[in-house]
Task: inverse folding
DNA sequence: TTCTATGTACCGTCTGGACGGTACAGCTCT
DNA sequence: AGAGCTGTACCGTCCAGACGGTACATAGAA
């Protein structure tokens, strides 16, 4: 069984994403994690400490995810776009933690920096497949656009999917030997 | 001078974007707008009404912005990408209101719908310049990626700008007569 | 081997403060 | 006279954080 600490962080993420920061009170997080409020405060001595714990997890997962992108069988582009799209993120994955962190980017110093690190890690990983700086950035932005959709909660259009995007992008990237 | 009602909405947006939803209390909004709390409640009888007012403004501005995209001298693509990028949105523009609305997308019903409308309006406007469904969606996603960057507060890279993106996209869109 | 001590991992309650919202009396333009 | 406010006072609720206590495991001393 996972540690209570991890379960608290999981519950915090879930509440932030599904019901917003206002609902992520210490009581609610503790209840969702199956611990008491006192137990939560044992692991995270304040709400700030809880947020800091989430950012720690974000940084850790960003590094792991960048590595996963580089070693993915389908390649970084495919991996990035699929995990960014609505429904593409796995529990325990970076996407979930990223979306949760976005919800607490409220004047809280350090959040912007942590998110910027994720941005930089992702771009660096994409550049192992696309050397052209503009094109790699462009692909990242497409993925980020999918992220935004996931954040807002808008599903993908019925008639269009990530596959269509990938097909187009491959056509633009591959043939001229421009890589 | 703008009406008190508009100033309240402006202040609400500013607080939401710069200091997050938690700081956007009725007292804080009233103070930032230069009205009393009673004055604020005269225009918006509750916090829910204030949020609803913001969504009204969002829908109105989305329609106006889609029209501006269609009639922009530089064309929809140029307009959309430039206004989405960090620093590209003007006060009184759609981008600011959109980013503010994103911050209150917490279980509040209706926010997702309003944001989805903006999404649809933007895509429809882009399709006046790009008929290919996949490409128009791709361009929208690039713009949305820039939106996300604006939301997070990460500035553009030093060595890359919207111009580079536009140049590449034009090259992909224009020459083969694929439109 | 038993007694005492220390550290870890929690639980449940309480309090002070902030916030949303109400009520109302009064002022100032038009 | 009335619309559009200001300013003050107040109430009920919710929440962060503090606090005191519990259960248990390990360890060293007698």
Result:
């Amino acid at each position: 069984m996972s540690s209570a600490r991890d379960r608290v962080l999981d519950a915090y993420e879930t509440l932030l994403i599904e019901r917003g920061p206002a609902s992520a009170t210490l009581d609610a997080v503790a209840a969702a994690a199956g611990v008491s409020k006192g137990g939560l405060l044992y692991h995270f001595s304040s709400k700030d400490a809880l947020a800091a714990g989430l950012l720690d997890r974000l940084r850790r997962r960003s590094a792991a995810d960048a590595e996963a992108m580089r070693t993915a069988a389908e390649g970084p582009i495919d991996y990035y776009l699929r995990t960014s799209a609505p429904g593409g993120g796995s529990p325990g994955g970076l996407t979930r933690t990223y979306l949760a962190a976005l919800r607490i980017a409220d004047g809280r110093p350090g959040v912007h920096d942590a998110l910027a690190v994720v941005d930089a890690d992702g771009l660096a990983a994409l550049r192992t497949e696309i050397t052209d700086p503009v094109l790699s950035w462009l692909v990242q932005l497409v993925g980020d656009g999918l992220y935004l959709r996931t954040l807002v909660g808008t599903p993908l259009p019925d008639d269009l999917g990530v596959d269509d995007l990938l097909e187009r992008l491959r056509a633009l990237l591959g043939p001229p030997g421009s890589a």
The two ends of chain A are 46 Å apart (CA to CA). Chain A has a mean pLDDT of 91. The CA atoms of residues 85 and 154 of chain A lie 10 Å apart. Residues 4, 35-40, 42-43 of chain A lie near DNA strand C (CB under 10 Å from a C1').
